[in-house]
């Protein structure tokens, strides 16, 4: 196993971020790894079988902790009923493709290069950290249904 952040297992990522390793935090990270772009409610539903006692507010708290530690990224997309979450990887620079019909979200590599990859015409004296692009489209499944 390499030492890059992308290759680290959940316990190592938690320890590396200075967070205590708990069964619930590991389960949330594993659920997000298996189901990226998931809402807190979706993560909670994936945990119910293995961790029947975990409550939705606990999942929200864990997601906030993981986001604050830089392990998870919060993604806000138009027409998504709530914030979506994905595991953040080192040197990851991507945007999102969202179906306007079913809401499916896919990652799209940045076409320009390293973050922030896009620069505004005027930065108003601010140092740009990232640029967020959402491509809105219709997926092939929804297109076939029409």
UniProtKB/TrEMBL annotation:
Gene3D superfamilies: 3.30.1490.190, Winged helix-like DNA-binding domain superfamily/Winged helix DNA-binding domain
Localization: Cytoplasm
Keywords assigned: Cytoplasm, DNA-binding, Iron, Metal-binding, Repressor, Transcription, Transcription regulation, Zinc
Pfam families documented for this protein: FUR
InterPro entries: FUR, Fur_C, WH-like_DNA-bd_sf, WH_DNA-bd_sf
Main location class: cytoplasm
UniProt record similarity statement: Belongs to the Fur family.
The name this protein goes by in its record: Fe2+ or Zn2+ uptake regulation protein
Gene source species: Microbacterium murale
């Amino acid at each position: 196993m390499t030492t890059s952040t992308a290759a680290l297992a959940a316990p190592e990522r938690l320890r590396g971020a200075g967070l205590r390793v708990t069964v619930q935090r590991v389960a949330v990270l594993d659920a997000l790894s298996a189901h990226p772009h998931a809402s807190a409610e979706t993560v909670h539903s994936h945990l119910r079988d293995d961790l029947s006692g975990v409550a939705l507010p606990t999942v929200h708290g864990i997601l906030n902790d993981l986001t604050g530690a830089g392990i998870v990224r919060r993604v806000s997309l138009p027409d998504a009923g709530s914030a979506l979450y994905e595991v953040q990887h080192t040197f990851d620079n991507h945007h999102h493709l969202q179906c306007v019909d079913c809401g499916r979200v896919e990652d799209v590599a940045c076409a320009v290069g390293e973050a922030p990859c896009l620069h505004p015409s005027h930065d108003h004296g601010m140092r740009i950290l990232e640029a967020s692009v959402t491509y809105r489209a219709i997926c092939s499944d929804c297109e076939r249904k029409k």
